C-alpha cells in the first residue's frame, strides 16, 4: 500500500487557501474514485482508493500544517508503510503558481509542515510533489499562504491540482523516477 499525504490546515477558514493545495490534490483523488473521507484515530482524515490494482491511502492531517508529522508517522507505523511508499503533496513559494515539481528528497526549504515530517520520519528522503503558489510581492508570507487564490490564478491552480493527481495515479504502476521524468 502507498500513502499519499496532502498537507493543509483543517477547517472552512482555510479550505481554499494557498497553504491547502495538498488537501485539494487528495480531495481531487477522493472525488475521482468516489471514496469518502473518514476520521482516523491518528488525528487525520483518510480515504482508501485503488489505482491500477495498487491500494493507496489518502491522508489529510488534522494537526494543522506545522504538526503534520504527528499524524503521518503513526499512520505509517499502523499500516506498516515504508517511507519509500509515501508521497507528500504541499505548497511551494519558490515555484510559480500552477507549476508542479516532483522530487525524491530534499530539505524543508522553510516549510514548517515539511520540517515536522522530516523530524518525525527521521529522513529527508521521501517522495514529494511541490505545487507552486509563488511568493507575495509585499513579503507578507503568512497572510499570503493563508489567503485564497485570486480569480486570475484559479485556472492555473486547478490545472496543477489535476496534474498532481495524475502524477499520483501514474505512481500506481511506475517507479517514482519515471513519474518524475513524465511530470517535471
TrEMBL record:
TRNA binds at residues 14, 64, 66, 112. GO terms for biological process: protein quality control for misfolded or incompletely synthesized proteins; rescue of stalled ribosome. It catalyses: an N-acyl-L-alpha-aminoacyl-tRNA + H2O = an N-acyl-L-amino acid + a tRNA + H(+). It is an enzyme of class 3 (hydrolase). Signal peptide: none annotated. The active site is at residue 19. PANTHER family: PEPTIDYL-TRNA HYDROLASE. Hydrolyzes ribosome-free peptidyl-tRNAs (with 1 or more amino acids incorporated), which drop off the ribosome during protein synthesis, or as a result of ribosome stalling. This is Peptidyl-tRNA hydrolase. It comes from Listeria cornellensis FSL F6-0969. The gene is pth.
